[in-house]
Amino acid sequence: MIMDINDKILRTFPNSKNELIRIIFGKNEMLYLNDKNYYIDLTGGGTSFNTVGYSNRRIINKMVNKALLISHADFKTTLDEDREKLAELLLKDNKISNEFVYFAGNSGGEGIEAAMKLSYQTHLELGYSKRNIFISRMESYHGSSTDAIAISDRKNLLIYKDLFPCNRYKISDHYFIKNRRIGETKEEYTKRCLDEFEKKILELGPEKVCAFIGETIMGGLQGFIEPCDGYWKGIRDICDKYGIHLILDEVICGCGVTGNYYCIEYDGITPDFLVISKGLTSGYFPLNAVLLTRKTYEAISNGSGRTNHSTTFQGHSIGCAVALEVTKIVKRHIFLKRVQKLGDLVRQKIESYLKGHPNFIAVHGRGLRISIEYSFNNMISFADYFRNLMKQKYKILLDVKWHRILLSPPLTISEDKLLSSVEKICLEFLNYKE
To answer: Is there a single domain that holds both residue 164 and residue 84?
Structure first.
């Protein structure tokens, strides 16, 4: 008897082996089990990373050619042409004014942790050693390292709470539909959120607060919830008022998926640190990057002269070569305009089908990061049913949780295929009976 290798793997859900999909190959948004059986993947690879499609020959060729030259040269002691070109391209033609890039390692969580440490080091270099408090928001997720969990609000990870640092605090999530008071306007709600933030700073002591951390649009826990107008500008103003850094997490919403290369470009501000990962390489190689301002660069450069945080594979040579090629594809005006247009079409289609349905609440998102928010008496039952229905009946893979359906297709998906899939989703939603 030959033992299945999966018997030796501890998974997130150890007993879910029979539910796993054995994929043979992928092409753009398609995942194939064999030559005849396939799925249309609208989950972006399960965790919203697939931006330029599976088996993109241009990306594969770049990866192979780089590997034939060198696997990796240490970030701290060597120069790499692709790394330098990638940094230049990430900083070019944006509506934000970050001027430097720090490649921190592999995952988005590692990028968040690096941004937190760089923030603290910047204050330290400038003589503000008491600034060691970080403020984040409830219902957020920033990664699975200890510090990233501590600023997150993912309930299953609270089993590690005894490991968390003690100087991490949270304010309310920014979600108008869920958190508004009766009769409250968006402007009034936004002011209340900003007042809560400022009150928390004053409560903790402004001289002790290092940074505020938030997802530019609320991520998978909530469902691509875009902020109210003026929210991020207000946060930026408050941070400036008290000398606090602003760290933005664009792991799930950066790198072009919203129709701007950086999602915060919609909101017209510049963060002190901006973290990207996932779509940076479209999943072809693990890599993250932290964009930072000249103030941070000069504080460290003119101070101790070195960053104390580092990881083995930061700025990985193959990863940077891959990211450079992916970024060249995505960061074109015509490409990003298509993402905006297609995203608007999808939201309009969903709205036209589901508006007025008693279980439909709203459609959210920017560009091709889209979520359908709903409410049923038994939310988990609906989520399980709907996910399996779309998978079995239409061969469509969806990320469906207790209160939302996420759509994270590759940005290269055809308009016809995406709109056809969305139509099927809407019709089955309308047909569902509790």
So the answer is: yes
Q: Label residue 12 by pLDDT band (50, 70, 90).
A: confident
Strand partners, 276: 289
The rounded distance, in Å, linking the Cα atoms of 83 and 386 is: 43
Q: In this structure, are 204 and 347 located in the same domain?
A: no
The Cα–Cα gap between 115 and 246 comes to: 10
Together in a domain, 253 and 306 = yes
Structure tokens at 86: 């990638």
Looking at the fold, whether 281 and 352 belong to one and the same domain comes out as no
Considering only residues 248 and 5, tell me which one the structure prediction assigns the higher pLDDT: 248
Q: Exposure string (b/e) for 196-224, b if CB count within 10 Å is 16 or more? A: ebbebbeeeebeebbbbbbbbbbbbbbbb
Nearest-5° Cα angle at 285, 406 to 217: 30
- pLDDT tens per residue across span 89-118: 999 999 999 999 999 999 999 999 999 999
Half-sphere exposure of 207 (CA within 13 A, CB side): 4
pLDDT of residue 3: 40
CB 101 within 8 A of CB 117: no
Domain count, the chain: 2
At which of 290, 308, 330 does a domain end?
Answer: 330
Compute the half-sphere exposure of residue 22: CA atoms within 13 Å on the CB side of its CA: 7
C-alpha to C-alpha distances, 307 to 55, 230, 298, 416, nearest whole angstrom: 37, 34, 12, 48
Range of the domain at 370: 5-55+333-431
Helix residue spans in 126-230 (DSSP H):
146-150, 176-179, 186-204
Residues 320, 362 share a domain: no
Same domain, 307 and 167: yes
Of 288, 313, 330, which closes a domain? 330
Q: For the whole model, what pTM was predicted?
A: 0.96
**Are 371 and 349 contained in the same domain?**
yes
For the chain, percent of residues with pLDDT exceeding 70: 98
Taking Cα atoms as reference points, which of 279, 270, 216 lies closest to residue 239? 270
Q: Which pLDDT tens digit goes with each residue over 193-216?
A: 999 999 999 999 999 999 999 999
Averaged pLDDT for residues 34-56: 95
Query: Does one domain contain both 227 and 203?
Result: yes
